[in-house]
């Protein structure tokens, strides 16, 4: 992937559109507050925040080359569809999101090197491509490289002509 760019679906922002990322702001999605006001009681009752809200992936970008308004409209049309978003500095992870408010990019179609912001609304967590982990008899550990207490999918494939019996899978929560 080209440096200082993002991959949106099958399109690279720098190679295909001339859009470079100069800064990005994201670390973790906000937690969803679960509080309720009780009449005649100070403060709020907190049920505990256990889930996360949608993530806003903020990318500060510049346009490297002049493009027509029609070409810009086509780019915005593509960015407003829900797709995988990969960043050049985290190529092993991707987000699923779309652009909801393209107004800022539409204001400056002919100005090269003008800074604008793309705010993608994404699902809360970063995803990772499936990992193949060959196993053998005995204890096999499959590392979890995620940062959230999220479910994983384990698929077992038997390439042999004989059946496998007594398979035990033990899932252990990630420790911080």
What does this entry look like structurally?
The chain is built from three helices and ten strands; from the N terminus they run ββαββββαββαββ. The strands form two sheets. Strands 1, 2, 3, 6, 7, 8, 9 and 10 form an eight-stranded antiparallel beta sheet that branches. Strand 7 and strand 8 form a beta hairpin. The chain is flat, with a radius of gyration of 22 Å. The model has no long low-confidence stretch (mean pLDDT 84).
* Biggest beta sheet attributes: 8 strands, antiparallel
Count of alpha and pi helical runs: 3
How many angstroms does the end-to-end distance come to?
31 Å
Quaternary status of these chains?
A: single chain
Cα Rg: 22 Å
Helix content: 10-25%
Output mean pLDDT. Answer: 84
From the spread of the alpha carbons, the general shape counts as flat
Which structural class best describes the helix and strand composition? mainly beta
- Taking pLDDT < 50 over at least 5 consecutive residues as the criterion, the unreliable ranges are none
Strand content: 25-35%
Architecture of the domain at 6-128 in CATH?
Beta Barrel
